[in-house]
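Hi R.,

Here's the chain you asked about this morning:
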Amino acid sequence: MWRNVELDELVVDKNHAQDCIGFFERWPDEINKELAAIAEAAEQRLVEPFNKTAFSAVFGGLLNRSRVAPLSMSSEDFIHQSVIQFLVHLVMDNPKSKQPNIADLQLTVPEVAALLNCSREQVYRYYEEGMLELTFRLRLHNTLSLNKPAFFLRQAVELAISLTSGSGDPLPAW
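And here is the predicted structure, written out as tokens:
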């Protein structure tokens, strides 16, 4: 949709609307196909190996933008759930090896929080408790930046799987 400034009325392109309807009628196959194409093309555009590449360099703001519903309603957020399912399959289809692969992309704290359906503070707690490891060594008296890629996609997905298959959050309440 776009705004026609001269007539000051909303103009909807019928073909665009039909494409949107068709996209969601084929859900989640259509989004999985698009994300798979992005993942396949990622290796051609890499400047550094996957384990030194930010998730956002390949998928953009996918994790943060796919999270539409509030955290308390995350089970009803079908778009975010489809993205997470795609990432789980991506990690499962790309096992750990000597050569870095797409499952070794680096995530920022907000991306991990979106993936785990938790707060940023909870991500810090997972790190402090040793459930998530940093991709680099944090210098003494330095804090972890929100915008710096710090965790591997593989570890975050494995933690997400363990949290959903277990009986709730393994960390004690504050």
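One quick note: The beta strands are 2-4, 9-11, 106-107, 151-152.

Cheers,
M.
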